[in-house]
Design a protein that fits this description.
Distance between the termini: 35 Å
Order of helices and strands: HHHHHHH
Largest sheet: none
Mean pLDDT: 86
Number of strands: 0
Number of domains: 1
Structural class: mainly alpha
Strand content: under 5%
CATH architecture: Up-down Bundle
CATH class: Mainly Alpha
Radius of gyration: 19 Å
Length: about 210
């Protein structure tokens, strides 16, 4: 197994660790989950560049790399769905649930299409829209984890500084998080429709 594929597997292994640190309540757990997510996201950037630069692109990498991305981002969305549903009095819990459903629906559809095309001997690599979707998701998740770390992990310190009311800060952070998540969701839908269009010739309900 080459190095890019090892990095992909490392990202998959890091996913449950990331989710555990996000959900288990201990000191600075959002900061820890943020650092793990950033490290895992960097492996996504490194393994792709390394594979292309040193001609190490494999069918395994084409299939598993986007799958590892899906596992990581989906874990984050599920974590935020739990957090917002349990702690937020506004409708953000409903919004993140809808967002998570759309993301999961798209990912299951694309994964199914990949299996169908693979059976026909075609490995569909991620297109530019899929990459934009992934980047926007990671940016949104990193921002969300950062805001949670500021308002929860370091909330006491921020309150003592007195620059801004904590309730107001949380409100602003939640709005930014939802805007970023909805932007990535729109890209998620667009990339999913493009995958569907590209693979329509391999879909035959009569078989």
């Amino acid at each position: 197994m080459n190095t890019p594929n090892k990095l992909t597997l490392a990202r998959m292994i890091a996913t449950p660790v990331f989710m555990a640190t996000m959900l288990i309540d201990f000191d600075y757990h959002y900061l820890v989950s943020l650092l793990i997510f950033i490290a895992a996201s960097l492996t996504d950037m490194i393994d792709g560049k390394m594979a292309r630069k040193y001609n190490l692109v494999t069918d395994f990498g084409k299939f598993m790399d986007p799958l590892a991305d899906k596992m990581l981002t989906t874990a984050a969305y599920l974590g935020f769905m739990f957090v917002y549903s349990a702690t937020n009095p506004n409708n953000y819990g409903i919004q993140i649930t809808i967002i998570t459903f759309i993301v999961l629906f798209r990912e299951f559809m694309v994964s199914s299409l990949r299996l169908v095309t693979a059976k026909a001997g075609l490995v569909v690599a991620a297109n530019i829209w899929g990459k934009l979707k992934t980047v926007s998701q990671m940016v949104g998740i990193i921002a969300a984890l950062f805001f949670f770390s500021v308002t929860v992990d370091f909330g006491g310190l921020v309150s003592e500084l007195g620059f801004i009311d904590m309730a107001q800060l949380k409100c602003i952070c939640d709005i930014i998080i939802m805007v970023l998540f909805w932007i990535s969701t729109v890209l998620c839908v667009i990339s999913g429709l493009i995958y569907l269009k590209e693979c329509k010739d391999y879909i035959n309900p009569s078989k």
